[in-house]
Amino acid sequence: MEIAGIPDPNSSSAASSASPSRYESQKRRDWNTFGQYLNNHRPPLSLARCSGAHVLEFLRYLDQFGKTKVHTQMCPFYGHPNPPVPCPCPLRQAWGSLDALIGRLRAAFEENGGKPEANPFGSRAVRLYLREVRDLQSKARGVSYEKKKRKKPQGGGAESNGNNPPPSSSSTASAT
Ligand SMILES: [Zn+2]
């Protein structure tokens, strides 16, 4: 079940034996989204010069399209996954979405000729950032992150909807 804008991170995805083609098309979409992000980047940025820091920039940029409420520590609903009334806390990309997105982009980078040792999506900074986001969101929302429910892919091109990439079932990060 999904309440508007608040994906339920607790629902496990038993039925998400994602067909490879679906994963592949999602990956291609993500890769295009990232390519467009680079194209629109000011100052211009080529893939070859893209570092982990730029990937973090990209992830933060995606946050503006996020649909996951992340409570601040001042919010009375801090730690509540489903607050009874609206609060002004920001919407962010859910950790599970980002984690899955990075996984796909990391693969796409190498499939598109990138060298594994130069893969910005596999950089330490990105891993640390994802871990930070996971901790933050699990505390703020009072939930522990396991597998995320698979959402319907959003139609359309990558342009206006680099937002909220559907999580894939590939993320196996649970408790550490
Ligand atoms: Zn709040």
Automatic annotation (TrEMBL):
GO biological process, one term: mRNA transcription
Highest taxon above the source species: Eukaryota
Ranges annotated as biased composition (Low complexity): 11-21
UniProt name for this protein: ALOG domain-containing protein
Keyword Nucleus carried by entry: yes
Localization (cell): Nucleus
PROSITE patterns: ALOG
Alphabetical list of InterPro entries matching this protein: ALOG, ALOG_dom
Gene Ontology MF term list: DNA binding
GO cellular-component term (any): nucleus
Region (Disordered): 1-27, 140-176
Keyword annotations of the record: Developmental protein, DNA-binding, Nucleus, Transcription, Transcription regulation
Domain ALOG: 22-149
Family: Belongs to the plant homeotic and developmental regulators ALOG protein family.
